[in-house]
Fold:
Amino acid sequence: MTCIRAWRRAGVFLPILCRLALGASAMESITTENARNVVERARIEGHVRAIYSLAWSPDGTMLATAGADRSVRVVDTSTWETIHHLRGHAASVWSVAWSPDGTRLASAGEGGAVRVWDVRTGEAIVVITGSYSPVYSVAWSPSGDLLASGDRYGRLRLHDPETGEQLAAWHGHIEGGHSTEVIAVAWSPDGQTLASGGIDYAVRLWDREGNALAVFRADTSARNDINGVAWSPDGRFLAAAGQSGGIHVWDVAQGEVVHELRIGYSSFWTRGVAYSPTGALLATTGSDHAVRLWDAQSGELLAVLSGHGSPVWAVAWSPDGTRLATGSGVYQGPGGDTAARIWGL
Structure:
């Protein structure tokens, strides 16, 4: 592994870059057969507080990371060097999402704003306000015409990403007559259905106008807020990461749980959840500092990846399925492991 130390130039903090020499085998796709051979291939340090979200550009040439230091970083995935350090959020940045064409990046934060950035210039071209509460999640529709977001007051909103115009808004997660926080949103691969997860222990499905389609409930015997949701690439399955330490996977058409993946710790929470591009693998992260790879069809645990020194909040697959990115840190506090790690063969 080679490392380039951080330094300051013209008042700009440049990240530490730690990188393993990448041979031909590093670009081999991760599969159920070789998942046990996955190792850390690169490490990117630059955020000074926890990384809450990360996302690969559609062509895999860039990786966006965001977190509690109020900033978004965009790095070149061929060198892992920073292209843009995007500032403008008033508080922690909880979520980032790329436009389908890879020219824009949306970010949502504690300060209540959703910002749309031109990644060619690093400028914010649209700023969406009006939430008046932290926005925890943002998702770009596959067709590129809608931005969905969810906030602390339980509202889901749809905006035109070109103009910032609000097209729809509704209180989606209700428990005991009160709106509850929306922690996660994700569009189905065909762009016709929006999934949302909240602290009412439910995953809810909506159409493009905000009409309710279905409700999937996780185990309610213990606190089980839904911290993350992910669709399988074929749209048949929906996985949800819960506060009680488990992953539920539903057959969307049948509305039935097909897998309940348990970690085994009563005080453990899961946050990151992502299907590999082929749908064969499911990656999950949580408070025990580990990354887990599961066989999505059988539910078998294939590998546990160790290396992070703090809770792991975020996970994302590269579009070609050869690499996995994860981000960690201490919740809303300084210190801890604030690195993004890249895993591969």
